[in-house]
């Protein structure tokens, strides 16, 4: 489902306000650099800008119904060119082919636009070729360079672009997006706190392994606080066989951390911030029978375990030590 201008305005209000004002005042730059973390909507914003640039209707926002808007949405507008890495890098030949294309007249109008994904992955020769291109701006031509690592790009290229920084998505915004995509409430809230990448969150929401991970984490929490004597057996028989890889172990600890943070949220009256709403009554009992200091110690114990996991310690030994600390807390 294509993202709308209003949706993007909710996700990146500052960026979209700047773009809106530039179009409204007919002051679009000839080159933009969209920089920010993965999943912050940089390509979606570039496509919306392209639609506005080529839209046949008057107005700032694209109409989404004219021939140009529809062709951009379907990925086949002849005057919009997308360049992305060929293998590990964007090569000089790709930039030269782009330059050659831009010597020709536009098919639909005099306007042309190109979008370069992962612009930081240009080879030195490709970057130098692009630099020459940027030094000869044409009012009818627009460039949008997209990167997650602007520090890896040539300063001379950055200086010739108007840089727009995309902020990480707020959990509330991402949660609403996920709900609109049909993700259940309990998963949407958890995923929006695990990642700020909509595509990654949607992929995880459809992943049976992720759903099972959540169930294993909840089970560990319940064992820790309701059947303490079974905790070590659970780690050995259930946790370790499932959480074999390091990235899974990290995710498991993140999800466990959120539970203890939820308990603290309940203690301090921030019940609307609780992520595991389906565990609310269980966590409320925990909150009533623990002090804030105890729960804070449990949070710190999980954070320390996350830190130690990066040092390639024995994962089972780490989890067994964490169990002891959580039970003492």
UniProtKB/TrEMBL annotation:
Q: Name one GO molecular function term.
A: DNA-directed DNA polymerase activity
Provide the protein name. Answer: DNA polymerase III subunit delta'
E.C. numbers? 2.7.7.7
* Catalysed conversion reaction: DNA(n) + a 2'-deoxyribonucleoside 5'-triphosphate = DNA(n+1) + diphosphate
User: Per UniProt, what is the name of the gene that codes for the protein in this document?
Assistant: dnaX_1
Please give the Pfam families that the UniProt record associates with this protein.
Answer: DNA_pol3_delta2, DNApol3-delta_C
Organism per entry: Bacillus safensis
Question: Is Mitochondrion set as a keyword in this record?
Answer: no
**GO CC terms:** DNA polymerase III complex
- What are its GO biological-process terms? DNA-templated DNA replication
Membrane spanning stretches:
none
Keywords tagged on the record: DNA replication, DNA-directed DNA polymerase, Nucleotidyltransferase, Transferase
Q: SUPFAM superfamilies attached here? A: P-loop containing nucleoside triphosphate hydrolases (SSF52540)
